[in-house]
Design a protein that fits this description.
Chain lengths: 73, 489
């Protein structure tokens, strides 16, 4: 059985640099429409469950905990 | 079904950044899209991976990463501009069990601190340097840096960097690659996922080299600075790929780690208080008085300000040190502050010695002096104005011609150089002659008999401390001291 992954965005930690957008091979990440606590349009994830767990977005993100990728066990 | 974190916040980061001022405690302070954040994550992950969090000492630069200590839960140090490799050298040698990381930007490393950096690299210090190259001075608002590209516009190169007048981008990795000592040099970039993966590998390698104490590792990270370059995430990646990498080609320039054995810890540095004291003051006088001893003469109740001036080589500075040490051996607070020219012999030299039972607010003497010892006319002319009207002046009889002086001033001439050179056979004893003269002068100015005897004992102890290992030197100096007393009587 293929491994399953899930992305979680801590919206208040996003600074809206959008480095993660282009690198997602599944194009799951999009610009959000709501301002977060810092005043940025945080990114959102359309279908978190379709993540393949490549980690590209995590390593593009300059914030330590804005993106977390979970693996189902 | 349960979940585990596949990619998430490293445990080497503080969970909450309490040191960061303001309400935002989970984010770093960096601008959106900054390469520092990405590199911080890679470094934190590598520290976690190799299990060296406990002893890692990252040294943050002055620059955007100045607040790295807000984030890494390790024993960080922040240092002045460009000095990270110098402080890292000290930190690594004083605490050999530590793993020193020098984290620097391009202005910090390639301009301000290039000397410190190159020297550390050339010595092969066991540290890993992360060099963040974003083609400008970021924190101060995007000025031209050594790494700015020809034609690149910055706030200080508004028409673009002109190589005719500003030179070319500094190829730091290539320069370091011309040195013998460094073991690992690689340049990476933070653009595409593939590049970031290569950067992660290089960062891991750098941290592994630290753990195995292989030697000096340099990882140059070509990093995005979208805010100062006024670009979007995509634009800054393109700028790096299409322009910066022409001047800063990626790749591993050197990796000698495989052929090197795992490094050993250097022998521990002695650091207990007693052994440090032993190094600083190898000869301590066992005859010194008890801690509660106090000289009883009234003259010692006030703060005594002594200025000694002459030319370099006359022993002016060592005379001051000797007086200060005598007072220290009698439980006074003392300060000694020299001022002299670059030449070892000749030129004006002076020192200020302050002796007090109370705390000494300043070692500087520019007025209110109690005692002036003037060995030359120039020194007399320069410092006589600092002496109190009722102060004591001791001057070299042949060198100084006295003008009209305030009536309350007490003046004592002595031919100290003549006595030392002609009677005692060596002009270097002149300062001991002068201390003898001072003993006689103080005896005429309120020092009681008990303290007169004690003054001589203190001198003998101070000389013993300084010259105890040189045969004959103690006797010769005490002889000169006695000659000084005799001459002044």
């Amino acid at each position: 059985m293929a491994k399953k992954f899930r992305i979680e965005i801590a919206a208040d930690e996003c600074k809206g640099c959008y480095r993660c957008l282009a690198v997602c091979p599944k194009k799951l990440i999009a610009r959000g429409k709501e301002l977060n606590i810092q005043g940025y349009f945080a990114v959102t994830v359309a279908e978190p469950g379709n993540c393949i767990g490549c980690g590209s977005c995590f390593y593009q993100c300059p914030e330590p905990g804005a993106i977390t990728i979970y693996e189902e066990e | 079904m349960s979940e585990k974190v596949k990619f998430g916040r490293s445990k080497v980061f503080f969970d909450t950044f309490h040191r960061r001022p303001g309400p935002i405690k989970k984010n770093m302070h960096y601008c959106p899209g900054c390469g520092h954040g990405i590199l911080h994550k890679l470094v934190a992950e590598a520290i976690e991976h190799f299990g060296i969090q406990e002893n890692t000492t990252p040294i943050a630069p002055v620059g955007c990463a100045v607040f790295a200590y807000y984030y890494f839960n390790v024993g960080s140090i922040s240092v002045p501009h460009g000095r990270a490799p110098a402080v890292g050298t000290g930190a690594g040698r004083a605490n050999p069990e530590s793993y020193v990381i020098s984290y620097q930007g391009d202005g910090d490393l390639a301009a301000i601190g290039f000397n410190e950096f190159l020297q550390a690299a050339n010595r092969g210090e066991k540290m890993t340097v992360f060099f963040v190259n974003n083609s400008n001075y970021g924190m101060t608002g995007g000025q031209m840096a050594p790494t700015t590209l020809p034609g690149q516009k910055t706030t200080t190169s508004p028409y673009g960097r002109n190589p005719e007048t500003e030179g070319y981008p500094t190829p730091v990795c290539e320069i370091v690659n011309s040195l013998t000592a460094p073991v690992y040099i690689e340049r990476v970039a933070l653009t595409t996922p593939g590049r970031v993966a290569a950067a992660k590998k290089a960062v891991y390698k750098g941290i592994q080299n630290l753990k195995e104490r292989k030697g000096f590792s340099l990882i140059e990270v070509v990093a995005p600075c979208p805010i100062n370059l006024k670009m979007s995430a995509d634009q800054v990646n393109e700028f790096i790929e299409k322009q910066m990498l022409n001047y800063f080609p990626l790749g591993c320039l050197r990796d000698k780690t495989a052929e090197l054995p795992e490094g050993k810890l250097p022998p521990p540095v002695i650091r207990d208080e007693e052994s440090v004291r032993e190094i600083l003051f190898p000869k301590r006088n066992e005859n010194a008085v008890a801690a509660d001893f106090r000289n009883t003469s009234d003259i010692f109740d006030q703060e005594l300000r002594v200025k000694i001036g002459g030319f370099g080589g006359q022993g002016v500075l060592s005379l001051g040190v000797m007086l200060a040490n005598m007072a220290r051996l009698r439980n006074f607070n003392v300060s000694w502050m020299p001022s002299y020219g670059p030449e070892q012999r000749g030129g004006a030299a002076c020192c200020a010695v302050t002796v007090s039972r109370k705390a000494i607010p300043s070692p500087i003497i520019d007025r209110g002096g109690n005692l002036l010892i003037a060995m030359t006319q120039a020194a007399f002319d320069k410092y006589i104005g600092e002496l109190r009207e009722d102060g004591i002046l001791i001057y070299d009889h042949t060198a100084v011609k006295l003008p009209e002086l305030p009536a309350a001033m007490k003046t004592y001439g002595i031919d100290a150089l003549d006595i030392a050179g002609n009677q005692l056979g060596n002009s270097k004893f002149a300062n001991s002659v002068l201390i003898g003269a001072l003993a006689a002068v103080l005896a005429k100015n309120g020092m009681n008999e008990a303290d007169q005897a004690d003054f001589s004992r203190a001198f003998a102890e101070a000389v013993e401390e300084k010259f105890g290992k040189k045969p004959g030197a103690v006797e010769a100096n005490i002889n000169a001291y006695n000659a000084g007393i005799a001459a002044m009587k």
